[in-house]
Amino acid sequence: MKIIKIIAVIALFLIALALGSQNQQVVTFNYLLAKGDFHLSTLLGVVFVAGFALSWAIFASIQFKMQLKLRKLNKQLKKQNTQMEKQA
């Protein structure tokens, strides 16, 4: 199942790359401090990669917090189990 997901992501990336290479129109992009002329495909690619990296970082931080919470709860559970065994 994991391999199918990887193949699907690679296929989507290749399709986006093929479609993006056809868009060589130059556009003016106004950002906060300046303005620049970029190829549309380059601009779309940069924005896509930035969004992917940002969402991956957010997901990774949430996953890390959950793993820390899980470790803490497992330690509490082990502590309670040892206390129950001592009482019995």
UniProtKB/TrEMBL annotation:
Family membership: Belongs to the LapA family.
Transmembrane among keywords: yes
GO biological process: lipopolysaccharide metabolic process
Membrane topology term: Single-pass membrane protein
Domain of life of the organism encoding this protein: Bacteria
Native source species: Vibrio navarrensis
Residues annotated as transmembrane: 38-62
Reported function: Involved in the assembly of lipopolysaccharide (LPS).
Keywords: Cell inner membrane, Cell membrane, Membrane, Transmembrane, Transmembrane helix
Entry protein name: Probable lipopolysaccharide assembly protein A
GO cellular component: plasma membrane
Domain Lipopolysaccharide assembly protein A span(s) in chain numbering: 22-83
